[in-house]
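Late entry, written up from scratch paper. The run itself happened at the end of the previous shift, but nothing got recorded in the book at the time, so transcribing now.
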Amino acid sequence: MEKIEIPFAGHSAFSGVLDKNLRKLEKRLGVSLSVRGRSILIDGPEEKEKFAKHYFDQLKKYEAKGRTLKKEDFNIALDLLEKEHPNGLDKFYPTKPLVLSRKSVTPKSLNQQKYIKAIEHRDLVFGIGPAGTGKTYLAMAVALSFLQKKLVNRIILTRPAVEAGEKLGFLPGDLQQKINPYLRPLYDALFDLILYDQANNLMDKDIIEIAPLAYMRGRTLNSAFIILDEAQNTTKEQMKMILTRTGFDSKLVVTADITQIDLPQPKKSGVLHAMKILSNIEEISFAQFNEKDVVRHPLVQKIIKAYKKAEGRK
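Output as recorded:
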């Protein structure tokens, strides 16, 4: 058993409500953690104890520099030590929260942090990963923050309605009512981030536009933040079309879950083709997510893992 004194041991950001954060760290580190005042007891296999002690030592050094650790930072710092910088947290710089009218948004994993930074600094970003990893939600949050800062004049949210196919004509209502069910996830993210009246006002003025991908053909989108959601369901032609719509001072974020392609011929997905032919262009960023980045119910992580394992056996 190891014992280490850490100033943040008693902080709510570290333990979380009902020790929820502490239990998550236990699971990831593979050890048992017990807080005793300003100290923490680490109990588990020797190698895992050693790594856990190293992790807390690094956090202690980080906080000694006058930096305050937030709830999300404990997971991101662990990601960094595990994946890229095992010797220390010298390159760890927490992302500032995106402050919007309804809530503030901060990344909850290293991949999410990299994704936000990529969107802020690159004009074309692909976010690839399973459902629930925050691909669309975080892109929406960055888009709204850009609009707030007047870095863009409008936001365009689009996705293919491939599930509808030729069935649109048989659905009740006008065209907008027919396509709304396929655009609903975009509305959900929007209304979760900013106030309802504010969102409706921006949409009434066409400052925020939510439309099917087919509506983008023939347009040039200047000073716009464009989000293409569910891009795994685009054809090669559709992908080329949206990638060539961006005008001056515009950004495009393409999100996709390549394990859920609904096209009749999945191998012809436009996003798979784009990933292959655009990977060497330096100005384009590809952000990859996995089940560790899932921010939904903890059970979702296990479900994604189980499906991934089953598909691997095939």
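The CA atoms of residues 106 and 292 lie 16 Å apart.
(Scratch paper discarded after transcription.)
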